[in-house]
Known about the structure:
Blueprint: H1 21-31, E1 37-38, H2 53-62, H3 76-88, E2 99-102, H4 104-114, E3 122-127, H5 131-139, E4 143-148, H6 159-163, E5 170-176, H7 188-201, E6 204-208, E7 232-238, E8 251-257, H8 263-275, H9 281-292, H10 298-301, H11 306-320, E9 324-325, E10 334-335, E11 338-339, H12 349-360, E12 362-363, E13 365-366, E14 378-381, H13 386-412
Parallel strand pairs: 1-12, 3-4, 3-5, 5-6, 6-7
Antiparallel strand pairs: 2-8, 7-8, 9-11, 10-14, 13-14
Helix pairs in contact: 1-12, 2-9, 3-9, 4-5, 11-13, 12-13
Amino acid sequence: MLQPFSAARRLEQVRYDIRGPLHARAGELEAEGHHITRLHIGNPALFGFEAPAHLRAAISARLPEAEAYCHQQGLAVAREAVAKVQADRGVIGAHPDQVYIGNGVSELIDLSLRAMIEPGDEVLVPAPDYPLWSAAVLLNGGRPVYYPCPPERDGLPDPEQLEALIGPRTRALVLINPNNPTGAVYPKELLQRLVQLAERFGLVIFSDEIYEGLTFDDAVFHPVAPLVRDTLCVTLSGLSKVHRACGYRAGWLAISGLLRPAREFLNGLNLLAALRLCSNVPAQWAVVAALQGPDTHTELVREGGRLQQSRAAVLEAVSSSSYLQCAPPQGAIYAFPGVDPLRYPEFDDQRFAMQLLEDKHILVVPGSSFNVPYRNHFRITLLPDAQVMHRALADIDSVLQQQLAPAKADAAA
């Protein structure tokens, strides 16, 4: 007879609240017949976005050629397409042999960290972070060390503050640019300083650039790989966001910089890729189409575009709110609003998110889910249209008023 047993201890510190208890409660409410406004996840198809037609056509046309395993690193044509993008950006030595295609960026994050980290190694991770990065470090025996990217600096890190966190066990520096959840876009000068730090201390750079084509106003995305000379750089991107094809599970990893000192790591990565045989073959044909086909995303973020209008709706609501504040997102598909902790010190993001879900049937992600010490923020996606965003933000403000008006009255007294 099977006796009760516990989950593996390595899971004890791992969290992924985007699909956590709040998400489970939302499912229960939906089963009861309630409509849930899901502002918690960056899943374009849930909000009426479709993958570009030329991606679908590419998969359909190549299905007869997609029924066998391919090379563990991916289809040659897909890797060539990624390498060409890198070369066009000025990455020295960009080559298909240094490209891996994976079942989304998520799988590649795990594989690459597993090939590198020894128990007790440290990885510098931004706070707030996309929690998969923290989880992958922990699950592979490492320790995430968080460098602050606070709202007061518009979500950007301080290189001097980051340098102070580097120790003898620090192995890597993670960049998320454009950032999830804050929407920060890193200026080139800041990236250059961070690269210099990594090169001076011998840190591998992992650059998560999944939102690379989605920037607002005059923000400019700068890939980090062309700036790297004297260390190893691992760039990650994919189809999920820019090309609105999350379900295809197609991402890529491109390695550049100093390869010779990393030979054993590269051999290990290749071994791990072989152990999972290969990634989803049909979707790899969409990688070629996406990188060589027409631009279908810029229209979404320029003036009058759907994402730009949704962002404007959020910023307008924040501006008119007595409670909310938010650094305008410069990129990606999220905003990270919060309340003033000095005016409302008792605000709790988890309690607020649950009340919002129960009372208004709106699902958001508490800011503390992104591995920050403060509890006065929450993340929302910009994917719903502007009309939905206006209604949702009005409901959010009403719940905030319900929670915070007593505190405001007490402060006035």
